[in-house]
Specification:
Layout (H helix, E strand, L loop, with lengths): L10 E6 L3 H16 L3 E2 L8 E6 L4 H17 L4 E6 L1 H4 L1 H5 L4 E4 L8 H6 L26 E7 L10 H5 L3 E2 L2 H13 L4 E6 L7 H9 L9 H9 L6 E4 L9 H9 L6 E3 L7 H6 L6 H14 L4 E8 L6 H14 L3 E6 L17 H24 L5 E6 L10 E5 L4 E4 L9 E10 L2 E6 L2
Parallel strand pairs: 1-2, 1-3, 3-4, 4-5, 6-8, 8-9, 10-11, 11-12, 15-17
Antiparallel strand pairs: 6-7, 13-14, 13-16, 14-15, 16-17
């Protein structure tokens, strides 16, 4: 492939917005370009090709994606700008009309990044099929690696644009997942984060295809992947990214409770703590369903961290409904909560819903719930004072303190003194205090 490029190597720069799936796909494109003979530019100002891997989950994400494109064109008007990611799925024609945009690739076309970067509009990328799977063998500037095992979403939450831009369920085969994880572990990664657009649905489409072929086999689910990865040798741990409540089954909880590789951490998006708002959101659960899952996980998985996402200001959310969500957060007491304000996304049922809230009201509710989330997070972390945490040490020290930094298996960020050779390793530390929400630890005692 390197013969496709001139003696003077073309430089590329990738800017990634959004979720872990996008980060994985950016790394996969990076590896394709490097293999083809391109050179990566660390500087935004010096590149022949810019790749903007966009997000469209909120209006702010759209705005930020477009701002990045404009900045690159202003800094280097002669460069190629390739736009891909979720914003490219439904805004294809609009993006092509933006000054400086050379190409727009849909998510399914990211494997054509080399031909596109070279300026070839031919759909055939070195003779490979359009739907060839992306894969990674490294993860730039990370001590942990993401592995995308699934794409597409079967849920239809009324506020969410993701199913519109990510399409049908598509699961990576167990063989390919295991091969990819094995390579990353061999390359020194000690934490593998399994990710997907709807991670818990992994295997559903594979099982349906077996039924079509007349194969009477056990249905496949996420635990099957975890068991296969667990059989690999090496010193590494496994973390799950975001997983919807209906996929947090008894089987998954039992596996996490009994398996030493699994990080004691579940990120389960709840979105609201009021049953009426959940109905408006088309979330097929009640608050009591959520609480039952949380109680079961806490009863079986030792010191489990439960993190979540919440939306405030959904159309029709009354003061009492918001109070119910606040009480829910207090009851569930997540170790971390990402609070979002409602964002109207064109094409979703919630886009035209009546009873929208005033911005001042939404901001006030955001501030109140964020403060509550900080309280519950500190309460969880404080329970580890004097205890040991196993921290995966990152490749760069904390910029403010110069200390080593990293995250524990239950997703507590920690700082501690130690030598550089601990980087990319899992180090045991004793928690002796907290500073700005981070655990302060001592290594070697």
């Amino acid at each position: 492939m390197s013969s496709q490029i001139n003696d003077k190597k073309k430089k590329f720069h990738i800017h990634t917005l959004g979720c872990k799936v996008n980060q994985y796909e950016s790394q996969a494109m990076r590896e394709l370009l490097l293999k083809a003979g391109f050179e990566e530019s660390e500087s935004e100002e010096i590149a022949d090709v810019y790749i903007v891997n966009t997000c469209t989950v909120t209006g702010e994400a759209d705005k930020e994606s477009k701002n990045v494109m404009g900045r690159f064109h202003k800094e280097n008007p002669n460069a190629r700008i390739v736009v891909t990611g979720c914003l490219a799925e439904r805004g294809y024609a609009d993006l092509l009309s933006v000054p400086g945009i050379s190409n727009v690739l849909k998510n399914s076309e990211k494997n054509r990044i080399v031909r596109t970067a070279l300026g070839d509009k031919d759909d055939r990328w070195f003779g490979r099929p359009r739907n060839a799977e992306l894969k990674v063998s490294d993860f730039k500037d990370h001590s942990k690696a993401y592995v995308k095992i699934q794409d597409g979403c079967e849920n239809r939450c009324s506020y969410c644009k993701v199913p519109l831009v990510r399409g049908r369920l598509s699961s990576k085969s167990i063989t390919n997942v295991v091969t990819e994880v094995s390579g990353l572990v061999q390359n020194g990664f000690r934490e593998i984060i399994l990710t997907g657009i709807c991670l818990g649905s992994w295997g559903k489409d594979l099982h349906l295809s077996r039924i079509v072929r007349g194969m009477k086999l056990k249905s496949l689910n996420l635990v099957d992947v975890l068991r296969a990865i667990d059989k690999l040798g090496g010193d590494f741990r496994i973390r799950l990214s975001s997983i919807e409540p209906k996929y947090v089954t008894d089987e998954l909880i039992d596996f996490m409770a009994s398996n030493k590789r699994m990080c004691a951490h579940l990120h389960i998006p709840f979105q609201s703590g009021d049953d009426d708002v959940l109905k408006l959101m088309n979330r097929p659960y009640t608050c009591s369903d959520y609480i039952a899952i949380i109680d079961k996980a806490r009863a079986k998985i030792n010191d489990v961290a439960l993190t979540t996402d919440m939306i405030v200001g959904f159309p029709g959310e009354s003061h009492m409904m918001f109070r119910n969500s606040m009480a829910f957060i207090r009851r569930v007491s997540p170790s971390r909560a990402h609070i979002f304000t409602f964002s109207k996304r064109e094409g979703t049922p919630a886009y035209n819903m009546p009873n929208t809230l005033d911005r001042v009201v939404i901001k006030n509710r955001y501030m109140k719930m964020s403060a509550m989330a900080l309280e519950t997070a500190y309460e969880y972390k404080r329970s580890f004072l004097g205890k040991e945490l196993k921290v995966l040490v990152e490749t760069k020290r904390d910029g403010k303190t110069g200390l080593l930094k990293g995250y524990s298996e239950n997703y507590i960020q920690a700082l501690f003194a130690g030598p550089d050779d601990l980087m990319r390793k899992i180090a045991p530390i004793k928690v002796v205090g907290f500073d700005s929400g981070k655990a302060m630890g001592v290594y070697g005692q």
